[in-house]
């Protein structure tokens, strides 16, 4: 299930609807979850949970891309080879970001009183199930095939 534009693949619209459903299902399964988002590694929205509007999704995708990039940049300095997930704890929220396939990442925002173990389990389970089928196609310059 590659995520790409309808111009590249006529079935892309139905794939995106299925992914939107998965994002909504993730939010429904995790008590205290607010929003879920699938984005490209460079911050373009690929899919979002229904309660997340387009503008909010674009801001969240940019934030997720920034956190993921920071974690990847820190890994060698910290003696690690792979970043599995980033979790940011705030006074009123947790923010989870993890790789979800080649060139894609999953972000989940939860209330601060959520069960972190359940949230981490559910996002990792979703990535294990669908991650191997996800990829964000590289984008060429305008006019390139």
UniProtKB/TrEMBL annotation:
Roadblock/LAMTOR2 domain span: 20-110
Pfam families per record: Robl_LC7
Name this protein carries in UniProt: Roadblock/LAMTOR2 domain-containing protein
């Amino acid at each position: 299930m590659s995520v790409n534009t309808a111009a590249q693949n006529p079935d892309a619209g139905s794939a995106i609807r299925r992914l939107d459903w998965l994002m909504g299902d993730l939010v429904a399964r995790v008590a205290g979850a607010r929003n879920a988002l699938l984005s490209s590694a460079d911050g373009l929205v690929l899919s979002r949970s229904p309660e997340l509007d387009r503008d909010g999704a674009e801001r969240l995708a940019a934030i997720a891309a920034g956190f993921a990039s920071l974690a990847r940049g820190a890994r060698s300095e910290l003696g690690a080879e792979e970043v599995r997930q980033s979790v940011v704890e705030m006074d009123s929220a947790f923010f989870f970001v993890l790789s979800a396939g080649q060139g894609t990442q999953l972000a989940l925002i939860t209330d601060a009183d959520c069960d972190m173990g359940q949230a981490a389990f559910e996002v990792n389970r979703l990535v294990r199930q669908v991650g191997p089928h996800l990829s964000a196609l590289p984008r060429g310059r305008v006019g390139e095939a």
